Amino acid sequence: MAIKWRSEFVSAFNIFRCLILLSLLLFNSSCSFGSIERKGDRGDCSDITDGVSDKEFRSLKLEDERNVDELKAALKSWDGTTRYKALWLLISKAKPHTILTALMTMVQDEDPRVRETSIEGLAMAATSQETLISQILPILTQSMQDKDPGVRVASAGGLTQITRHQKTLIPQVFPLLKNGLKDRSACVRARYAGFLESLISESKAYTNEVKLVIPDLIVVATRDSSAWARSHALFALGAANVASEEIVPVLVRVLKHDPDARRRSVAVAALSNHATPESTKALIEAISDPDERVRTQAVYNVVRIEPSSLINQSNLKKLSDQGLKTAIWMLESPTEEPGWVGAKNYIPSILKALIAERNSRLQK
Q1: Residue 350 near residue 357, CB atoms below 8 Å
Q2: Contact in structure between 169 and 163 (CB atoms under 8 Å)
Q3: Exposed, middle or buried, 262 (CB in 10 Å: 0-12/13-18/19+)?
């Protein structure tokens, strides 16, 4: 009886062990599959990668001798990396509009790298063959809801690429990019702000559409957890040719209070596109910034938009010694900057005033 009981116990224990091992196997398998899902929590997008380096792809392109039909066959592989590499090579060897069926099929692939690559191919097809835009646009729009942040970025990038060729799409695309500024992924928010910057700079005729995205860009520029997203939003605000009364105070606050010199430099560049008395005053003050990048950017932009302000004695007195030195150095250095062409006649007078101020301080 004891032997029978012990035998049953051992059998039950073995079954239990098998169940545990099976569970671990399934867990490991699910983890392996899940590893291709990118998280996108970092604003620099370093965690949204292809998984294959540019160097490896260059080697693949040179060494892979498969033809188009063989690459299409490889798209049916069980391995995601194989499908991904095959699709990338297929796009590089064939014109995207000639493999439209394959691209539309692979946009549903389980591997996000494959979906992302297919979206990039579809965007290329739409820009090369405008007649395909109406067919491809809904696919890219739908993919902006993808669970993977890299796919969402690729979809928005594709839409931006198409819209730059077909500006009449701006009223349709702007709201989609605007919604992306609230994405849970910091990387997506940063990239969407960058896409908006690209389109805003080319959307002078669409002032009403631009105005609609300004409030959301201001929120990202001032409150986003990602420094990269804030910088992109600042650039987008600078590119806008509307709502200076809303934008300039935001840029001025960043310039005066942001501890990061890179974002202050971005704010200086953005302010130069909004020439108002407030922005000019802030740029003159920025010539005395502790960081050399900010100072040089400020000098360049003041000379570009309001050169006579640096002849004003009141403004000269406010410059720090370091700011005065930076301004003199920049104006003494020969430059072919296109932004200074209009101020070329002012430069000798400005330089004379700056040197006089420096000499006055040295004599004290």
Answers
A1: no
A2: yes
A3: middle
pTM to 2 decimal places: 0.81
Q: Is 167 exposed, middle or buried (0-12, 13-18, 19+ CB in 10 A)?
A: middle
> Does residue 201 register a pLDDT over 90?
no
Residue pointed to by tokens 């099976």:
22
Mean pLDDT of the chain: 85
**Six-digit token pair at 86?**
């095959």
Cα(224)–Cα(60) distance, rounded to whole angstroms? 39
How many Å apart are CA 163 and CA 348, to the nearest integer? Answer: 44
Fold of 59-165: Leucine-rich Repeat Variant (1.25.10)
Determine the distance from the C-alpha atom of residue 321 to the mean position of all C-alpha atoms in its chain, rounded to a whole number. 37
**Where along the chain do its domains lie?**
59-165, 169-236, 243-364
* 136-160 residues labelled b (16+ CB within 10 A) or e (exposed): bbebbbebbebebbbbbbbbbbbbb
